Amino acid sequence: MTGPLGAGPQALPAAPLEDWLRERYFQAKTDISSSGVHNYTFGELRALDPALLGTRELDQLMFRDGPSLGDERLRAAVAARVRPGPGHVVMTTHGSSEALYLAFAALVRPGDEVVVATPAYHSLSGLATAAGASLRPWPLRPENGFAPDLDDLRAVLSDRTRLVVVNFPHNPSGACVDPRGRTELLDLVANSQAVLLWDGAFTDLVHDHPPLAEPSQDLDRVLSFGTLSKAYGLPGLRVGWCVVPQDLVSELVRIRDYLTLSISPLVERVAAVAVEHADALITPRLTEARYNRRRVLEWAAASEGAIDCPVPRGGVTAFPRFTAHTDVTDLCERLLARHGVLVVPGRVFGQADRMRIGFSCPRPELERGLAAISEELGTHARGRRRGTG
């Protein structure tokens, strides 16, 4: 493959989050690390409409290669839910990760400037780096609870900006623009020469206002991304999508021809059922997550200053600062070794004194995890008072 990412995987920077989770994910007994809602089983999904995934239907499913843009039924289900704007079409992909790879490969050339809301999930910055782009961070400031400040975005936009890459609600902080902020953000991009890449993995997981509208309804130069991994509780399906301008479709398909060609017809059939019953999957998990969010904030508030936790406006992760720690990595290691509790150290997002805590898990699991953190903080504090560090 030729093009900006054609140097091969050695050109890609490390993915610190995946490096942290790669083996620990399977060792943990209590997982409060995840950025998605807790997972559904195939039986729970099938119960939504047994006839759609019955034995007869599956027996008749032909294992042939699928269309380059994805199965028509699945694409129609996604389109009905996200409502793409004029001149945009849905392309289904192997998770939103493949869609992001295709977009960066198609759009970025060495020397381009790419603005990325920071801290960022590694795919949103690492793919730009691999393509030879110059990164210009749009800082989401910890002192402001990571709330997006559009004046900071204005300050980093230039006539060389090729892409503006955002992720709202934001991973890991849960920060989000509100509908008014969304409009202002789209206007800023519209008045530049940039293309907007809108990572909407957490679109359905908002707590203080309705989900933000699909950006292609109001902006032509935009690609948006979605996935079944976060709000749907189906990460193992590895299905996502991209809402892409019609005139860019052929380029994304050309690159995909060298990668995956298409998705398994079985996987797309299951994914179509999930999207057609989206609310039945999302609503109960979101209700539980909102309860758990309150619990995390109460727990942090009761820490007597040891934990400073910005309010997550969306998503299902909190990103608290541990005020007595400059780096919580050792604390995270002890949580797994002593308690079987998995969390994510903030250093993987460039914020070493913070920890990503996922709160969309069964309530007993969340309570076990929070109790273990409190216990370790108490042990650490007692040790410091004794002069043992």
Descriptive overview:
By secondary structure, the chain is α/β, with parallel strands linked by helices. It is about 40% helix and about 15% strand. The strands form 4 sheets. It has a 7-stranded mixed sheet with strand order 2-8-7-6-5-3-4, sandwiched between helices. Helix 4 runs parallel beside helix 10 (about 265-275) and helix 5 crosses helix 9 (about 250-255). It is globular, with a radius of gyration of 21 Å. The termini are far apart.
Q: Which range best describes the helical content: under 10%, 10-25%, 25-40%, 40-55%, 55-70% or over 70%?
A: 25-40%
The helix-strand sequence is HEHHHEHEHEHEHEEEHHHEEEHEEEH
Question: What does the average pLDDT come to?
Answer: 93
**Number of distinct beta strands:** 14
SS class: alpha/beta
Please state the CA-atom Rg, rounded to the nearest Å: 21 Å
Q: Work out the strand percent.
A: 5-15%
Termini, distance in Å? 53 Å
Q: Unreliable segments (pLDDT under 50, ≥5 consecutive)?
A: 1-10, 385-389
Number of helices: 13
Question: Given the C-alpha coordinates, what overall shape results?
Answer: globular
Order of the strands making up the biggest sheet: 2-8-7-6-5-3-4
**Biggest beta sheet summary:** 7 strands, mixed
